[in-house]
Design brief:
- The chain has 202 residues and is mainly alpha-helical.
- It has a single domain, classed as Orthogonal Bundle (Endonuclease III, domain 1).
- 47% of the residues lie in helices and 4% in strands.
- The protein has 10 helices and 4 strands.
- The strands form 2 sheets. The protein has a two-stranded antiparallel ribbon with strand order 1-2.
- A hairpin with a 5-residue loop joins strand 1 (3-4) and strand 2.
- It is globular and about 50 Å long.
- Mean pLDDT is 92; it is low at 194-202.
């Protein structure tokens, strides 16, 4: 079941779980981004990276630091991050504006190098694992942690050399970028009509 926000709109319960002053941050992410189809290699590299950093943490922690992540990782430009050196790793480990986890930082640099050398566009690689459209879940109890499609995505990404891309993280990515629509049935957010490319030409 959804919950009613201060504006009377019914939303997925997780979007209303943050205390003030972060309530609007989580609500706006739910309303404007989560579950909206996103394409583009840079945009999807950003989402992949943030989902990896979120592992073991609250998504709210990542949202609070999102602009810092963008600054620290050069706007998630794949070729730029692929060229980061040990000096950049040290810089990132000293940056209190992001999550200072060495394994995740090193995985991000490694993932950028893999993405830069792909024989297929990263966006196409990820989206080919999107499942067929299905009905929205009636309650949060119906939401899976992983699916056959996320298992297949994780398997292919790992085979290509990507790190921190297990089936659960892959499914969270699918939810975030609209490969699946997991807004609850009585959530006010409308079903998306089409994917939007937030990084044309990249």
């Amino acid at each position: 079941m959804t919950a009613a926000g201060e504006d009377g709109r019914h939303r997925c319960p997780w979007s209303l779980s943050a205390p003030a002053p972060d309530r609007a941050l989580l609500r706006d992410y739910h309303d404007d981004e989560w579950g909206r189809p996103v394409r583009g290699r840079v945009a999807l590299f950003e989402r992949m990276t943030l989902e990896a950093f979120q592992s073991g943490l609250s998504w709210l922690v990542i949202l609070r630091k999102r602009e810092n992540f963008r600054r620290a990782f050069a706007g998630f430009d794949i070729e730029t991050v692929a060229g980061f050196t040990e000096a950049d790793t040290a810089r990132l480990m000293a940056d209190s504006g992001i999550v200072r986890n060495r394994a995740k930082i090193e995985a991000t640099l490694a993932n950028a190098r893999v993405a830069a050398g792909l024989d297929v566009d990263l966006s196409d690689l990820l989206w080919r694992h999107a499942p067929p459209t299905r009905r929205r879940p009636a309650s949060s109890d119906e939401l899976p942690a992983r699916t056959p499609e996320s298992i297949a995505m994780a398997r292919e990404l790992k085979a290509r050399g990507f790190r921190f891309v297990g089936p659960t993280t892959a499914y969270a990515l699918m939810q975030a970028v609209g490969m699946v629509d997991d807004h609850l049935q009585d959530c006010w957010v409308p079903r998306p009509l089409a994917a939007r490319d937030v990084s044309k030409g990249q």
